[in-house]
Every structure is written in structure tokens, then in C-alpha cells.
Request: fold
Amino acid sequence: MAALLDSLHLPNGTDDVLDVGCGAGGMAGELSRRMGPNARYVGFDVHAPSIRWCREFFRDDPRLCFELADVAPPDGLGSAGSAAAPYRFPMQSGGAGFVLAKSLFTHLLEPEARHYLREIGRTLKGGEGHGAVVTAFLFDARSFASERARRVFRHGGERVRWRRFYRPTAAVAYDRSLFEEMVREAGLRVLWTSLHFYPGSDRLRAQDILLLGH
Reply:
């Protein structure tokens, strides 16, 4: 991911950064090295222990802020809170020059995914030099390749599938046309893609990467 960000020249060094589903700060260090002294990083996650760890580990860098999302995800992985749909990202509208959502949409079902894309659209600054990098498992529901994808994502419908019956959000895959439709409905567009799972594979290889912008 670090090499990819370098090739895309993101973030640009002066803009604020929003890390959606930051986990234990796996990208915080990389992003902070690309930020200028006046830029701000905001990372958030539903997992309270990860946020506590980040606040302690990165406490000496005043540019970095970590927020606990008041969301109660499926599977009991996060803090007790509200459903994902009402959650508002901790960033003002148009406040982020760069948004990262790494390994997030692979754990969201369609209603939550639509909401999170809308929030990315709301918080992402428009114009050249700004963008959002998101990753997902995408497949082609119209081709034979979807049959290979079904061997991994055995459950769900034609356009949204998941790997484990009793824990759908452990690994979620989207028909590419549906995901791109959700992107457009969020006021965004796909600027660039790097396809690794699409059009569908019989193994969980690397996730597909999309660069989104206004």
C-alpha cells in the first residue's frame, strides 16, 4: 500500500487525512510520514482496544487523532453503540484531502457499505490532488468467473456474497457493477482500479483497490 500511495502522490502533504477503520494504526505511521507539520490525521474504528493502543503508541505526535466509532458491528467485535447507518465520520464536510478505507468494505454488508461510501463522499475534498483509496473483493456476476467466486463466497445473493454463513461480515464480496453503482450514488466516481480478485477467483487473493474522487 505504501508504494501505491507514492505512485498516486497521496496524501499531498498539506491536506488532512481520514483513515476509516484504522484498526491498530497499521497505516498511521506511513501516512504521518507523508503529512506536513500542519496536516491532521484522524483515524477511527469500532474496536476499543485498538483505539486505546493507538492513542498510547502515537501519543507523541500531536497531528494524529484516534476516535472510537459508536457503532455496534455484527459479531460483537466492537464497542456497544448504535447501528452503522446513523454514524457520522469524525471529519467536517470536505475536510479530508485523502481518505483511506483499507480492508473495510470486505466486512460491510450493503446497507452499511452504502452509508460509508456516502460519508466518504461527504468528507472528501473535491478537486485534483484529492482522492479516496478503498479496497474490496469484487466479482463479475454476469460471467462464469462468478462460479469460481462462489467456491469462496458460498452464501448470499447474486450481487452480494459472503464466506461464512454464521458470520457474514467476516468476508464480503460485491458484484463490481453494484459496487460502482453505490460509488456513483455517493456522489463519487472511480478514477482508477487495480484488480486482484476480480472477476472472481477460487482463492482469497489480494483485494481489489479503487481510487475514488469527486
User: Anything to note?
Assistant: The chain is about 25% helix and 25% strand.
